[in-house]
Write a structure and sequence with these properties.
Number of helices: 22
Oligomer: single chain
Helix content: 40-55%
Shape: globular
Radius of gyration: 23 Å
Bound molecules: alpha-D-glucopyranose
Largest sheet: 3 strands, antiparallel
Length: about 575
């Protein structure tokens, strides 16, 4: 039997071309036990940037060749590198047994594969045969596929990711209408489905751009995830040719046209409807939700080195650079909350006019919820959920904060402060199952007003303070980037005590995340893939490079808010 394949792990030799194989330093294979032990010992103390990771002999050559056309693609990661070597045999030799769950997870992930004309093009949201209603969980969701894609890239299987990127690009080209209204050209679908006709033996695609979603909201996050994934693919494979095709260049420009267009905005953040991202139903996140702002920032930064500096691309590059400056300043100043900042807001004066206003958005201190005063540790901080006129949503949202760390939207100090907060508020944000999507839950009257009495989003359930295992990969990536892998290990251990036994639920309920979610699917693909990605990243931290951006030194440092109007 083909052991590695069976486990879903890559058979290292089979994918290498001759020249690659030549470049590959075989001594690394033999050195593995030593490297592994060293990594275990040293990684807790040193941050990723201090360790010169990612440039294995094999990839440094490729990286050097590939950087020519693509600025800033300085370090290639090791696709299927070390984690690919972790066949049961090599692990046994090293006495680092993979957790038994890993093999189950790969098997479940492969079961969720979706094929179009014989080619794998994505993974379905959930493979839950026990559930009577399929709803739309039999579709390939763009956001759900991201952790699957990363797992495949890390395991040295980039083909499915390429196929997915091309299929969704093709769908982007469709004319999209909701009732009689035509959607912007660049919109990417929330999800798509492959219809197999067994009689005619044909496959057809159908896509949902929001027209069949709850609330009829177009997904703003899909386009951003698409760009982020294109960069991850490029980083991981060193294959610049995909990003450089006229189709991908156009795809990026269309997405960028939608989100960089000028309107009535006075803020550089992106104005959104409720439910346009992972939280895809009414949860009071309309306006400027942190999840979208962080993804927006990351997508802009990811697109920058991939865009060609030709006549069309150049204009976008200039607009992106300007927007990134304004966006990072705005987010780092106004969305950031720590003990000091909270105290300042608490003492705000209101009704200030003119440029000298300190309380720029006229936030009324009475609107600060009681819980936040207890929640805020003396050390630590986070990006709050939303900032708009007289409205600060103080809730914690996990995805936005982790993406802020990965994209370096958060300064290095802010990134560390976010990790400090997670440690200080472990009970609240992690509890018994990583990780709370948002904190705290909205209850009673607020729940009625904010969710519109949504029975799925009752307190401490689903999007309203529920715990989502998929977020584990984002936490792990953030932990590695900030040099705190021990936090990720603690969280992974918690997940390992339940996930397989509970059949990979979509989410957990309760203040501590102790109960399998009321309406949670089982065998939810991104719960499975998120776990695998977290494991592979801890095992080989160089994988982080495909999903992380180093700080851009050119970006203006945080300026005191009272002085900001002059900039
Ligand atoms: C739910 C989630 C959404 C996810 C979808 C498929 O609607 O809220 O984020 O993409 O399920 O898993």
């Amino acid at each position: 039997m083909d052991g590695p394949r069976e486990l879903g792990l890559r058979n290292v030799g089979s994918h290498c071309s001759i020249s690659e194989a030549d470049d590959y330093d075989l001594s690394r294979l033999l050195d593995k036990p030593r490297l592994n032990i060293e990594r275990q010992r040293s990684f807790d103390e040193r941050s990723l940037s201090e360790m010169s990771i990612g440039v294995s002999p094999r990839f440094s050559t490729r990286a050097a060749e590939n950087t020519r056309g693509l600025e800033n693609f300085e370090n290639m990661c090791s696709p299927g590198g070390r984690s690919g070597l972790n066949t049961p045999a090599s692990s046994a030799r090293n006495s680092f047994e993979p957790h038994p769950m890993v093999a189950d997870a790969w098997e479940a992930l492969r079961r969720s594969l979706v094929f179009f004309r014989g080619q794998p093009v994505g993974t379905i949201a959930a493979y839950d045969h026990a559930s009577e209603e399929v709803l739309n969980y039999d579709q390939v969701f763009v956001r759900d596929f991201v952790p699957s894609a990363l797992a495949f890239l890390m395991n040295g299987e980039p083909e499915i990711v390429k196929n997915f990127l091309l299929k969704t690009l093709y769908l982007q080209g469709w004319e999209k209408r909701i009732d009689r209204f035509k959607l912007g050209e660049g919109a990417m679908p929330a999800s798509f489905k492959v219809l197999h006709d067994p009689v005619r033996k044909t496959d057809a695609l159908i896509a949902d751009f929001g027209e069949s979603a709850i609330g009829r909201v177009a997904p703003v996050d899909s386009g951003f995830w698409w760009i982020i994934l294109l960069r991850a693919y490029t980083k991981s494979t060193g294959d610049l040719s995909l990003a450089e095709t006229p189709e991908c260049q156009k795809g990026m420009r269309l997405i960028l046209t939608l989100c960089l267009s000028e309107g009535f905005d006075t803020f550089p953040t992106l104005l959104c409807a409720d439910g346009c991202s992972m939280i895809d139903r009414r949860m009071g996140i309309y306006g400027y939700p942190i999840e979208i702002q962080a993804l927006f920032f990351m997508a802009l930064r990811s697109a920058l080195p991939m865009l060609k500096h030709d006549a069309e691309g150049k204009e976008f590059v200039e607009r992106i650079v300007k927007r990134l400056h304004a966006l990072s300043f705005h987010m780092r100043s106004y969305f950031w909350l720590d003990f000091q900042q909270l105290n300042d807001i608490y003492r705000y004066k209101t009704e200030e006019y003119s440029h000298t206003a300190v309380n720029k958005f006229n936030v009324i201190p009475d609107s600060i919820p009681d819980w936040v005063f207890d929640f805020m540790p003396t050390r630590g901080g986070y990006f709050i959920g939303n900032v708009s006129p007289a409205r600060m949503d103080f809730r914690w949202f996990c995805l936005g904060n982790c993406v802020a760390i990965l994209s370096s939207l958060a300064t290095p100090e802010q990134s560390l402060a976010i990790m400090d907060l997670i440690e200080a508020r472990w009970e609240e944000l992690v509890g018994e199952m990583p990780l709370k999507i948002s904190y705290p839950a909205i209850e009673s009257h607020d729940w009625r007003i904010v969710t519109g009495c949504d029975p799925k989003n009752t307190r401490w359930s689903y999007h309203n303070g529920g715990s989502w295992p998929v977020l584990l990969w984002l936490l792990t990536a953030a932990c590695i980037k900030t040099g705190r892998p021990q936090i990720a290990r603690r969280a992974i251990e918690l997940a390992e005590s339940r996930l397989l036994k509970d059949s990979w639920p979509e989410y957990y309920d309760g203040k501590l995340g102790r109960y399998i979610g009321k309406q949670a699917r089982k065998f939810q693909t991104w719960s499975i893939a998120g776990y695998l990605v977290a494991k592979m990243m801890l095992e080989d931290p160089s994988h982080l490079l495909m999903i992380s951006l180093e700080e851009d030194k050119q970006m203006k440092p945080l300026i005191k808010r009272s002085a900001s109007w002059t900039c």
